[in-house]
Design a protein that fits this description.
The complex is a heterodimer of chains A (364) and B (739). With 364 residues, chain A is an alpha/beta fold. Chain A contains 15 helices and 13 strands. Chain B has a two-stranded antiparallel ribbon. The chains are: A alpha/beta (364), B mainly alpha (739).
């Protein structure tokens, strides 16, 4: 099994190197015989864990000197524990990297008192985007299409949620802006449980991130048990919301809003939604080094991730793990990080106020 | 029949796929790894599977699945060793086994208990595999029938088992369960994350206490301390009475109980969201209910071992149903399992059942084969390993402390884990001493977060149904046929418990003087004060969703605790209320004091906070063997130090250059495994040789080296660190000394 992998990677590397004619020279940096710890502030088996474990063997092959890359799970305190630990313990030698997700960004953006780290202290070397799709039972979806106002007035939507300050903030706020009456039932252990609630008929609206939608909701759609109604969308290089490349046929929330309300969304609520949407989806998962890390090491990581992404079979092997979203490195990743971790004070205050008034959640 | 027409050809193909030498090799590799991981309390499937994940990438799917299933399937088999031999709940699946398995070991019947447990495991595992085969094709509507009201009702059924295990004074059982529920509610609330009983900035408690720590603290610590004080072998008179054949015969006599409990295991395993931790308690309760002479439970009744052990392996088969059918992990290890399947190129879910039924069935075959191999190996070993119980306990004790400290430390990998273990351990010691039901406490703890979430979620859903569908709609939602059936079972089981509660009391202890009132009253006051604190704490939470459950539970428990105090005021001295193990019982005659013995354990913690865990452990081993176990002179003991240094250097070298991933892929998996087992075997061999010899100083050296070596090997394999202390704040030390 091991030789297969090595050969495949070697072929890929060779092909990639040929195609690019040369990868940036980082010959001075070598991790030969070293072990790189990849801190994942979530437990084993979660989305971020799977993402890191997909990349880890590829990264190990692509970095100069072929170091061992070990995923180290450090869950706790809503992922702030692992991130705090990295902030305190990582040396600028490239031997420890951190993988964060939207669930790490949100407490940071909402000024959670447990957050002791600052994204500004880190350098990003990879950003992975994802998307999300909301769906309903067919009868409600038909009404959503034909007469949304009546639907919103007469129907109470039930949504299984993990908590209002988690990624679920994005769908809850979107539906609120549309004027839907959504009653969240909190305390679910994962988004899979939300889908199960929908399948049981205990929920009549749900959303899943792209890969979960593709593997678990699409069969329901094909059987006529669910119909997608909106996707959150993706960002173009200028930061505009466009249709999600994984779901070109599903309208974005922005389009749906414009159709139903008769005008483009605007105002502080929309600004807040957009800020948190970007943090939660287009800039969902990122890999960081400490800011003081020498440029050669940062470049070596950037080159390694570029080599991985340039592999001819990358699309094929990554599809089940990452979907068709862009994997940004270098300057593009930096832009993503800015978009996902810098949010105006107005938007933050608006969201905090909304969480307090709507769900009674005090954050300070 | 349609079912068979679909299932049989696929089963046959799967059989052909799995019965290849390579696949079987991988299966055996998984089983061996699973057995070794299962023996270590607190590690369990998540740690084992995570260790495997790096190798899965690019592996042949059938081999990969066989290896993963092999590992998962046998963990509830081998965790029985710790439960029976040491009274340490090996994993959440074998907590109930401790109740009767450990007393059997103390009676010198360890081999019998182990063999009965392994046969039950084997039977349960095969039962689970058979059910999985056919059930997976038709289970979808059944799984979907379990909404919040049904899940809540099953949780309540689990809680009702407290009635069976409450002990002599029912009110104390209620308060003990309440205490468990409240300890389980510590930390962030499941709904909206308000902090509860976390005392502001003490972030350790914010994440709540993990089952590993509570299980070890409440069961293992009190037993270890008690045995240490009596300074004898686990088995009284250090002899082994019944052998493993007796165990198999005992199982055969109780075959029907084993079948019923396997059924319970499968059903609870199939329902997603319940998790495995309640299965063994329901099975144990069932075993108690269906036994005529209940007086032996808790004293070493073989049915109390057969019941839970049949159910916990059957659960793994059941648990694969929602995992494969919906892609929803029923437990933490299943989440990693799903992750591993993705690495192999398969996405768990309905498509897999439809398109890859043969691959799916290789899982079934692997499950069955793994159970046979695993249980077979364990039975073969049980006679030898049971001899552990004849060794003088004082020699085992440092290993036990090391084992439980290491296990507890897997929870959060911080020094706080050890403090939490010690605190819960002290609570466990007092609950044991004053006759408060520890099983009731653990059931409450295990079910706390489920009870809260499902109550809230069922209530919320029902109130929305009331708004949209009126009373009719709501009642129809809540009182589904499944709810009514489980409700009837719950009421019946409570009724049996109430009617027969007296039968469970050991009659000979009635009427004996229980000592004075002071100790028992002081502990009851402490419990009441905790509930009062919990009430006040809950009242200050601003979010209603997060407040209501702890408020109601702590208030009800406070009333129960006050009721006990009221009874104590009125009852005469010598009443069963004032049970006190220090005045009457084994501990009363123990040669060593409670506080000095506990002091050794506390000393380990203090040392660890000063010089880090590994250094502290080394010092602890040497001092303990020298002073407490009186093993030879100080000068000789210093021989141990170079030995430890060699071990540390060896593992440090491994760690730097050949970390688990590269090391094992480098030499390849087989060699890695063989090497690990060989090292462990050599250590154990040396250990047993020296137990018999009379030379004392090499014994200390070997004991210390074995202990530290085994711990480092495990930690190294699993890529774990150790808690650093003050020393490490100032000096940067390499792994493992630096943490």
């Amino acid at each position: 099994m091991k030789t297969d992998l090595t050969r495949r990677v070697a072929l890929g590397l060779a092909a990639g190197a040929l195609a690019l004619s040369a990868t940036p020279a980082s010959a001075q940096v070598s991790f030969e015989g070293e072990t790189i710890e990849w801190i994942i502030p979530f437990s084993e088996g979660g989305g971020s864990d799977k993402w890191a474990r997909f990349y880890a063997p590829l990264l190990s092959e692509a970095l100069p000197g072929q170091p061992t890359v070990v995923v180290k799970n450090m869950p706790g305190a809503g992922s702030t524990k692992g991130a705090n630990w990295f902030a305190d313990n990582a040396d600028p030698d490239g031997l420890m990297i951190l993988g964060t997700s939207g669930s790490t960004q949100f407490p940071y953006l909402l000024n959670d008192p447990r957050v002791k780290f600052d994204y500004a202290d880190w350098t990003v070397v990879l950003a992975t985007a994802t998307g999300g799709v909301a769906y309903m039972p067919p009868d409600l979806a038909a009404q959503f299409e034909s007469d949304p106002q009546a639907l919103f007035e007469n129907t109470v939507f039930i949504y299984g949620s993990q908590g209002a300050t988690r990624l679920d903030l994005v769908p809850l706020l979107a539906w609120e802006l549309l004027g839907m009456q959504v009653e969240p039932i909190f305390g679910l252990k994962g988004r899979g449980d939300g889908r199960l609630m929908f399948e049981r008929g205990e929920a009549n609206i749900d959303y899943q991130t792209s890969s979960a939608y593709l593997s678990n909701v699409l069969p329901l759609v094909e059987q006529g048990q669910a119909v997608p109604v909106m996707a959150w969308g993706a960002l173009d290089p200028d930061g505009n919301i466009v249709r999600d490349p994984s779901f070109p046929d599903i309208p974005t929330f922005k389009e749906v809003y414009t159709r139903i309300k008769g005008e483009e969304p605007s105002g502080p609520g929309w600004d807040a939604w957009k800020a948190f949407f970007v943090a939660g989806f287009p800039a969902q998962k990122m890999v960081f080094l400490p800011k003081e890390t020498p440029q050669e090491i940062v470049d070596a990581y950037t080159a390694a991730f570029e080599t991985i992404i340039a592999r001819p079979d990358f699309k094929e092997v990554s599809l089940p793990h990452l979907g068709v979203y862009p994997q940004s490195t270098g300057a593009a990743a930096k832009v993503r990080m800015e978009q996902g971790t810098v949010v105006s004070e107005e938007a933050k205050d608006w969201v905090k106020n909304w969480l307090r008034e709507r769900y009674g959640v005090e954050l300070d | 029949m349609d079912l068979f027409e679909t299932a049989l050809p696929a089963l046959e193909q799967a059989f052909a796929l799995i019965l290849q030498p390579t696949q079987i090799m991988y299966l055996i590799a998984g089983v061996l790894l699973g057995l070794s991981v299962g023996v270590f309390p607190g590690l369990g499937g998540i740690a084992g599977l995570s260790l495997m994940l790096p190798f899965l990438y690019g592996m042949d799917p059938v081999s990969g699945l066989a290896m993963m299933v092999g590992l998962v399937a046998v963990i509830p088999t081998s965790d029985t060793f710790a439960s029976v031999l040491m009274g340490i709940p090996g994993s959440s699946a074998s907590q109930a086994t401790v109740l009767d398995g450990f007393p059997m070991a103390k009676r010198g019947e360890a081999a019998k208990a182990l063999a009965a447990a392994f046969v039950s495991s084997l039977f349960g595992g095969l039962f689970g595999a058979v059910v999985l085969t056919f059930f997976i094709l038709i289970a979808r509507p059944i799984v979907l029938a379990f909404g919040f009201p049904e899940l809540l009702m099953v949780t309540i059924l689990g809680l009702s088992m407290v009635g069976m295990l409450a002990g002599r004074i029912p009110l104390k059982g209620v308060a003990a369960a309440g205490l468990g529920l409240m300890v389980g509610a510590i930390g962030d609330a499941p709904a909206l994350g308000s902090a509860r009983l976390s005392f502001e900035d003490w972030s350790y408690l914010y994440d709540g206490l993990k089952l590993v720590i509570v299980g070890l603290g409440i069961f293992a610590v009190p037993e270890i301390i008690s045995l240490l004080r009596q300074d004898r072998a686990i088995a009284k008179n250090a002899s082994l009475g019944a052998g493993w054949m007796d165990g198999i015969r005992a199982w055969w006599k109780n075959i029907w109980l084993s079948i019923r409990c396997s059924g319970i295991g499968v059903i609870v395993g199939v329902i997603p969201g319940l998790g495995g931790s309640v299965v063994d308690w329901i099975a144990y309760g069932h075993a108690v209910q269906t036994t005529k002479d209940k007086s032996k439970f808790g004293q070493g009744e073989i049915r109390g071992v057969i019941g839970p052990e049949s159910s916990n392996n059957a659960k793994e088969g059941g648990g694969l149903v929602p995992t494969l059918l919906f892609g929803i992990p029923g437990s933490g290890s299943m989440a990693v399992f799903i992750g591993g399947m993705i690495l192999l190129g398969y996405e768990a879910g309905p498509q897999m059942i439809q398109n890859n039924l043969d691959i799916t069935y290789t899982v079934v075959w692997s499950l069955a084969l793994a159970n046979v191999i695993g249980a077979g190996l364990c039975i073969a070993l049980s006679g030898q390993i049971a001899k552990l119980t004849t060794i003088r306990f004082t020699l085992l004790a440092p290993f036990m402390f090391m084992l439980i400290a290491f296990a507890a430390f897997q929870s959060r990998q911080s020094l706080g884990d050890l403090v939490a273990l010690f605190t819960i351990g002290v609570l466990g010691i007092f609950m044991r001493r004053f006759g408060w039901s520890r099983p009731a406490f653990l059931i409450g703890f295990v079910l706390s977060s489920q009870a809260e979430s499902y109550t809230y979620q069922a209530f919320q859903s029902a109130s929305i149904k009331l708004r949209t569908g009126g009373w009719g709609g709501m009642l129809e939602y809540i009182f589904s046929p499944i709810v009514i059936v489980i409700l009837v079972i719950t009421i019946a089981s409570l009724w049996i418990a109430a009617r027969q509660a007296k039968a469970i009391l050991p009659p000979e202890e009635e009427g004996k003087p229980k000592g004075d009132k002071r100790g028992p009253v002081a502990f009851a006051l402490f419990v009441a004060a905790f509930f009062l604190l919990a009430v006040v704490d809950a009242a200050t939470i601003s979010v209603f969703n997060d407040k209501i459950f702890p408020l109601v539970v702590s208030a009800v428990s406070l009333v129960a605790a006050l009721g006990i105090l009221w009874q104590m005021r009125r009852a005469p001295e010598g009443h069963a209320l004032f049970e006190d193990g220090e005045v009457h019982g084994d501990d009363a005659t123990a040669p060593k004091g409670l506080w000095t013995t506990l002091g050794w354990f506390a000393g380990l913690l203090v040392l660890a906070s000063l010089v880090g865990f590994i250094l502290a452990l080394t010092i602890f081993f040497l001092l303990f063997l020298l002073v407490r176990a009186r093993e030879g002179t100080r000068n000789m003991a210093l021989l141990a130090l170079p030995a430890v240094a060699v071990v540390v250097a060896f593992f440090w070298a491994l760690r730097r250059d050949y970390l688990p991933g590269a090391w094992l892929t480098g030499i390849d998996l087989y060699f890695g495994l063989v090497l690990c087992i060989a090292v462990l075997g050599a250590l154990l061999y040396g250990y047993f040789r020296l137990i018999g010899s009379s030379g004392k100083s090499p014994r200390i050296a070997v004991l210390t080296t074995c202990g530290i070596g085994a711990m480092l090997l495990m930690a190294h394999l699993l890529n774990r660190d150790f808690p650093p202390g003050l020393l490490q704040e100032f000096v940067k030390l390499p792994w493992p000394l630096g943490g």
